[in-house]
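Posting this for the archive.
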Amino acid sequence: MKIDQKVINQIKQEFDSYIKDVTKVEDSESPELLKTGIRPFDTLLGGGIGRFSLVTGNPGTMKSTICANIASQFQKDHTDGLVVYVDSEHSMSPNRLQQLGLKGIVPKTNLTIEQVFNLINAIVMFKEEKKVPKIPVLFIWDSIANTPSQAELTASEPKEVVGMKARIISLLLPKTMNLLEKYNIYILAVNQLRDRIVIGYDTGADLKHMGAGSDMPGGKALKFAATQLLQNKVSQSFDADTSPYGQRATIVKFKTVKNKYAPDNFSLDLLSLASTGFDDVLSTFLLLRDAKEISMSAWSYLKNYPQKKFRIKEIKDVYFTDPLFKGAFDEAASAVLNKLEQKMANYEEWIPSDKVEEPEEETEEEIKISAEQSLSVVSV
């Protein structure tokens, strides 16, 4: 495919300012997996995000949010790295991306599928010209389903472009996959979940762990090429008035439909705050709660550190201000994550089958000491 010189010039202008020390870049490591910044999520994934990862799910399952949070962690871990954000759904403004931790990113909008692949090729050419193939690049594509082909923009009848998107992707994606490792590029893409329509003889779902009634647009090439394919589902939502986390929050279940780096068909709940997105401490709290490493009540406590009681909405403050609590929390988390990893390796369910403990209502005595406990959190 011929690459538009305007696209190349735009990439040069955008990325030149990031490249200050070529020697440092050439000596940088090229990790196979990118950390997400959320410990339970990294364990579920087998260490982090791979070269081509797909996140799919119904509307409102925080797909764009998790991508932005992963990109934020990427910026922290790779100060010489580059983030490209394609937003065909117009779901993320620069301000919202900044709230989710991303810095200096303006989403690229109104691109066709051909232009998306054109953009990736322009990045490759830019890295060749600058002789910096090892600079890590995280390319976020949100979303595949909502990115039209050039033909779809000009077609007068839907029947003219049936299957067009899948055919273009099946042609261009294999060529792109061959470039990712050589030029240290990671693609994190969002796709929509659709009802699977069967015409004639049903050969069954392409991916057995996705469910018999679900599928995603874009054709089989995406499923073959993906190193990881995740399916999201909202487990529980809290409004500002009822949330135990101090603000609107959503618990999302992430399921590995396909995973090159760890056993698939495993699920974990992660917690997203309305203000800042998915949170490591709160998601790890859910893990410890489900593993019964936390005694749940109006004033909860870690079973390996019962001296410190806390309310759920205060757990982040306690974690970051009390070194002893943080140490006990991290120790418990490490043990549970190791257990989870072993269970996954043996294809065993790890979460206890009985019901998770729910917090009890505060007693009058507990309410009376609430202010004192809150002050102790601040003063540590």
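The first strand starts at residue 52 and ends at 57. Residues 323-345 form the longest helix (23 residues).
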